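Schema walkthrough. Field components (list of strings):
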Amino acid sequence: MYLKNIVVTGTTSGIGYAIVKALAARGDHVVAVTLNDALGSKAYQSLGSPQNVSFVSIDLSSNQAIEKGSHKIKALFSNQKIDVLIHCAAIVPQYYITNEQGYEMQFQVNHLAIMNLTLNLLDYIKRAEGIVIATSSRVHRSATIDFDDLMLRKKYFLFNAYKKSKLANVLFAYEFNRRYLKDHVLAYLVDPRLVNTKIAETNTRGIIRLFWSIRRRFGQDPNAVASYFLQLIDQEKNDQEPYYYKYGKQVEPSNYGKDEQIAKRFWEASEKLIK
Amino acid sequence: MPKDSGKQVKSLLNKYALVTGASGGLGREFVLELVERGYHVILLARNKERLDYFAHNLLLMDHQMVKTFECDITKDDQVKTVFDYLINNEIKIDMLINNAGYDYEGWFNKASHEDTISIAQVNVLGTLNMIHRILDVKAKELTIINVASLAGFFPMPMKAVYSASKRFIIELTRTLNYELKDDNVHLTVLCPAGMPTKIEVLNKIKALGLIGAMTTVNFNIVVKKTIDKALKKKEIYIPGWLNVFMLKISLLIPRRRLVKKLGKKWKRTFE
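Field assembly_structure (string):
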């Protein structure tokens, strides 16, 4: 097992932070993405300022920032390879919020940002014949995509938007593999189940915030969950379906998530949006 | 730019809408809604780069027009450029959305001169300039949507100039509905309370506690309803039933007492 070039998003706290912590101890060359420099330096210091980890700031709500940021990331890998790209960043705002292009926040950060960053780093990932891991969730199973209203402009409810964005991760990963397996790269999905993070607490208030602050305490410690990601990094690339992993084992995602027509249409619609 | 093939192809309305402050949160949502309804849109904003970045990827129907202008509505020469364009191209405006506005919160004597004066320049004079000039390029029927605020109904400490400027717009709306009726011009004034358009604003609302929570509405719905109500010639739209209720109750309270009560409440969220 050699030391790898690894990029992780969502590293301010939660699962992303736990993964960086675990990788820092192993000595892999890690680039960790946070929203801004203040959060990045705070995380870096609490990790003990490890030599093998660099923090980069990218506002994932801005597609322009993602493109610029991908150059910053690439500059940190002198051999121009990225072995692993792990997407942990997500946002769950209580109210309908949009970015500078009018895109709804969860659709942008939890889905488009993943597609945008992956495609921008793809040449480096191909060079390493690397893998991409996205964090999905069981809630994708009850979600569908409304192509007439991709961003829930008709009616926004934070949980619906979240479900759809997690389904988007499944559609993305499966379509990514349909398109790029031939280039020896591979996308995985990890369903960590309930994890004790503040994902639904930072941008919510009142009853919803209270509900999540109680519910998350029944979840796993993010440091334990990090091992599911490390397992995929260390194992031989497994390009056999299903690409969806729960508790370290392959399980089938929903039929909707595996649907080829829907995934293709969704990919093309998303691609137009991130131009 | 081709639409996603699954979307129901709505027909082009062949109507024109002009939106000021089109790159802000609320402005963008108005634009998205108008585009979806088939309007050609003319967009004004101070920062053309930001505006063009927003506009370049809009999902448009074939032959649907988007035109962007760098325009500060307080600068009449820039406004005139826009109107010259409309006149030269024989474009008649069916809907004007006066969304550009400026806000600054804080004690009156602690704000900079520029911040203080700008609120009135944009919200009052800029808006007035647009309303007066738009009559030269109006279509047979013209709908004007003025974005004001629930604050326009109250003398609001910490938002003295802002609330007064919005009061100007509310009263102007009422009077012009009478004066311009025969010209087929109808005005609607939108008066929201808390309406988060950015993550930072969401955090401010958290600080307002329970009342803040219950008076907050999602702006995607507000935008849709505002346009619907404006087309139905509704004069004042206050989103959120609790906000309407609170307004009605406040009308029973003598104004001096009201200022003091509001002052106490807002001071708390500030300090």
